Fold this protein.
Amino acid sequence: MIKKILQTILRKPLGYLSDKYASRPDKQRVFTALSELKQSILTEPGKKGPVISFDPEQHFIIFSDQHKGTKNGSDIFAFAEKNYVAALDHYNQNNFTYINLGDGEELWENKVSRVKRKNNPSFQKERLFANREAFIKVFGNHDLYWDNDPLAELNLERIYKRTLPIYEGVVLQTTVNGQALDIFMTHGHQGDMQSDGNGFSKWFIADIWGPIQMYLGLNLNTPSVDDHLKTLHNTMMYQWSAQQPGTLLITGHTHQAVFESLTHLERLYRQLEAANNKKDEQVIKDIRDQIIKRIGNNINTMPDFSGYKPTYFNSGCCCFDDGDITGIEIADGYIRLIKWMYDEQKLSVRVILDEITLSELIRTIE
């Protein structure tokens, strides 16, 4: 009873504090870090990340931010695990290459040995991609251990039964309609003063936030995060990407899915504007109802998204508190934002949230 009362009282203030202090991005640091990383990968492939040429026959799935824990009260991955395992089964059977964009393991709160022991089903599925040499693992701020601990290589071998390189980013390269296209991917914590290897944040998560979250059973990574306007960090990522000719940027880190530089709410506003121009009353009503459901009745002043270039994407996360996971697919000439969710029978199903062909996309980013 006391725990439920505390959950009710503390959910909003803790959510506010989590949003306010979990991320402190600095625009110049973000821009510099992204530019230097991409240049490093392109000039020295394999050191900080691979450069992969691909064609429409090659399929990729990008997931991030599982935050695999130890199945205790603070494990925000536990409820999503079945969706994640089902998704990896699907993508392995269909010969996808899996790019994990970081924070796969919650190593600020937990010892790697306990995470390994408690997450055997998902590690087994990831191992199938590694066995096909179709698994690329990128580190994030919560699993920075993989990049900087002397025992990381040994622990990776124990998990995946093979030597597995760890990267800071990946660049996919292709040609669409005669135009070169780079798809640059990284976790997205670069330039964030609270997350980019910051010792205070690691202490706060492990010694303060972790125990509170465990006791109260709170998971603040709720699906509603996708309903808001972009976080400041995502906005800075977009601003950098919009200045890079012939380049798409895909990150994770914020747990907020973004497709063609817009969150789901932002895309609804854009669709409402188009419906208003066409005077399609039924469509207008349907979209307004969706927006009101998310943010209430104050929707008359629409943000202006007309100047946005569709250069930035975010995979969201694999730890929403209803068990949903989101990711980005690149396959069959398309880029897609997808969700895996539990249906009424508690079975895992794949849902396409948004999609666009690479041919359409490249015409709008130059």
Residues 2-21 form the longest helix (20 residues). Residues 222-226 have pLDDT under 50 and may be disordered. The radius of gyration is 20 Å.
